[in-house]
Amino acid sequence: MSYGTRVQAISQVTDRKPLPSKIPQRLEALWATDVFTLSKMQASLPKDVFKSVKNTILTGGKLDVSIASAVAAAMKDWATSKGALYYAHVFYPMTNATAEKHDGFISVQSDGSVITEFTGKVLVQGEPDGSSFPNGGLRSTFEARGYTAWDVTSPAYVMETDNGVTLCIPTVFISWTGEALDKKTPLLRSISSMSKAATRVLKLLGHTEVAPVNSSCGAEQEYFLVDAHFAHSRPDLLLTGRTLFGKPAAKGQQFDDHYFGAIPERVQVFMQEVEERMYRLGIPAKTRHNEVAPGQFEIAPFFEAANVASDHQQLIMTLLKSTAKKHGFVCLLHEKPFAGINGSGKHVNWSVGNATQGNLLDPGDTPHANMQFLLFCGAVIRGVHKYGALLRAVVATASNDHRLGANEAPPAIISVYLGSQLEKVFDQISQGRIEGSDAPGLMDLGVDTLPVFPKDPGDRNRTSPFAFTGNRFEFRAVGSNQSVSGPLVAMNTILADSLTWVADNLESRMKAGEDLNTAAQGVLKEIMDKHRNVIFGGNGYSPEWHKMAVEERGLANLRTTADALPVLKADYIEELFARMGVLTPVELESRFDVYAEQYLLAIEVEAKLVVSMAKTIIYPAAVRYLSELSLAIANAAAIGIEMDKESAQTVSNLIKLLMDGVSKLSEATAKDDFDSIEEHMQYSAQTIRPLMDKVREYADTLEGEVADNFWPLPTYQEMLFVK
């Protein structure tokens, strides 16, 4: 790596022409062409088989395994007509990744000939082994048997790449002893648990016909694009997804000129291909735009059923990364790839509803009179207050720690923002009366040629980690590189717990003689009396709030993953998941072990790379510059010219500080005698990371002192602004 490499990279980037932009096909012609949809099933399955499958998908009815052979045959015929030679059971292990094992449709006959074959047994169940996936002690490494099982509620699809076409079948992944080894199984359980509790409440409210209740999810995916020539010259970007070194450019995001600006031509061509691939896979891409930081963008799909949305979110991340390669980019999904500018999140818009009562978090025009909405919203408030630490734990990763708590993302303190309209309604409830609510107004801009349009009754709060935004809650603390499954599991489970409590209390009060309205108001008042401390509508970034939240309101401020993850081992969290039938104590403990190990490994890799890059890239460059500078000073002195030596002394001092810092970091990373994994995590958070930051501080200062033609690494200016 050298300055010449940098210059060559800049030249290649500036000379690159965007790939030709195709005229987009009509959405109707693209939509779900690569998905084995209900309509395709209906056209290819016997009526009774289709009816059975449809019932399972739409109502959550029990899967009739006897129909699997007919479905498998139809699925195979459709996939092979699209060019597929292989199929894969796709599953989601606890690593946030997507896993798949490809098997051919081939079956060898006794005479040596072959036929294409895909049986019902193979569709329903697979055995991918998967013994090398982290399992948190659920099984020994020598115990290799693991099963995948078909999730009929998430549609099969074909994935087309330059290497061919594969039929992909979403599945769960479980151990031989039946424990969940994946992200999907707990999500499906949490949806079922929440649906049962919600159905109880709805029936108590007088509804006689209640369809299964599901949660919905729309996740706003933020990401960075860096030209591959730059990224491939940065070992830190390649191995960790973020820059471990780099002096911020003179210009960053302070002018706000990138946010919602014109999308660069090359980026828009990339986005268009991503969206076309999404549409073919039935993923409803809705929004695209430049984000706040230079080089940062966002894509947001329309909301879908949570299980399908979770699968689609994994596909979106895959499509972003694979399509970026075709366009000469590297897509960075790390939460904080560049210091000094905004990082990336994945705002999860979450709601609950069904086919008979609709969106249960829709307040309507008169929320004060909408008892159904108030009970469901109150249940969310109760759940977030009781289990706020759990919500913090499910977004805890080494990479997200760089983002949470900075003035760009929600704080690590979990609070609920309701907006002025709903906050007034719940204030009335706490006082034992419900009098009314603010009506939506009209926005008149005072210009006849501009329209008068409706004004929402409440503003938004970008500093809140859990904000009500009209007909849903937006969980803004989720990291850009995370699976949305974990946060969805937590939200569904705490809502199931709260709705169970609501139903129990409604029943108890009504048995004691209260009418429904009085009982409901009593339940809501009790919620507000016990849980109003979690509601906050002010500036979540302010130090005053951080102090008030902890000291006066009793909310947790779990600043790091090392602080947050142990919440998963708390007795009340274990009891919650077990009682709701979402995770057994053993399964929950395994998740703590896996996530803790992932945290430690992430920091270990970064620390090793900091040492390596400092010693083999930055130190040699600085020494070469110091040598040339010293020679120039000596040569000038030889002919009677006295040059300023301060710059050389500064560089010399920084080199010494850099290498002293490297030595301390190397020594610290050698420690391995920890009494517990919790102690190891705290050591990584409180000792290793600060030492890494110190080495970076000296290296970044050196970057500002060393002549540009000596600096070997692509700079922030180049990576963020040269497209």
UniProtKB/TrEMBL annotation:
Domain GS catalytic: 194-618
PROSITE patterns in UniProt: GLNA_ATP, GS_BETA_GRASP, GS_CATALYTIC
UniProt keyword Repeat present: no
GO biological process: one example: glutamine biosynthetic process
Keyword entries, A-Z: Ligase
Gene Ontology MF: a single term: glutamine synthetase activity
TM region positions: none
Domain GS beta-grasp: from-to ranges: 85-178
Function statement: Involved in nitrogen metabolism via ammonium assimilation. Catalyzes the ATP-dependent biosynthesis of glutamine from glutamate and ammonia.
Family: Belongs to the glutamine synthetase family.
Name of this chain's protein: Glutamate--ammonia ligase
Annotated source species: Microcystis aeruginosa (strain NIES-843 / IAM M-2473)
Protein encoded by which gene: glnN
